[in-house]
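Mods, move this if it's the wrong board.
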Amino acid sequence: MFSPPLSTPDRYLQDLAVRGFAVLDASAMQALSGTTEAGLAALLPDWDQLPPDEYLRDGGRYRQRRHASFLAQAGDVRDVPYRPHWQPVDYNALHGGMQRWFAPVAPATLAQPDWRALLRWLAQVADIIHPAHVAGEPWYGEAHQFRIDTEVGIGRPTPEGAHRDGVDVVAVFLVARHAIKGGETRVFELDGPQGQRFTLEQPWSVLLMDDERVIHESTPIQPAEDGGHGHRDTLVVTLRAGGFLDPIA
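Not the wrong board. Structure tokens:
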């Protein structure tokens, strides 16, 4: 496994500007977002209660998830009423073009201080790396809790392959890895040959991406031992200017 190219808190914005992505370890992420080990630990039980993703077109049963939408504006985060997740086929050839009504994130989770602190921080990052965004206008955000498991042998974090999400900023937090191998992260230039591959292993380390400049994927996971059962948990947050992706727009 390749170690991630970690950025420091004083350089991560520069790294985002230069190469389109940055990786922070857990301590750097906490220092920047104002979260704490105890506050993040309070979120963990959620991942043991995620319902199955009923929309997998490859017929798999390896993914569980919940979804939430929000608006982030001027340091404030407002939850949005339950709505579907939608992507055009240009960004997701496998699952694009359909409204996916995932189970909502639990209300108690939405109210957790560190959940809201993460979203506020990411909106601040978006403000900085997308200065053309109209000041004072909201960021339209979505948060996805994922568990990919190996109960049937192979789990695919990104069954659609290397992709953009069709937003402005993407954050992928590794929440946990348990008894697995694989799950390598790959980030490539959108219009060039450069790319990097690495494995996120530390809980609450995070990959930040300028979605307009890079594409990304995670490789399949397998049990660490024959007959074993493991999982990979992530929190993926996206921010988009101008509105949610919507089939009516």
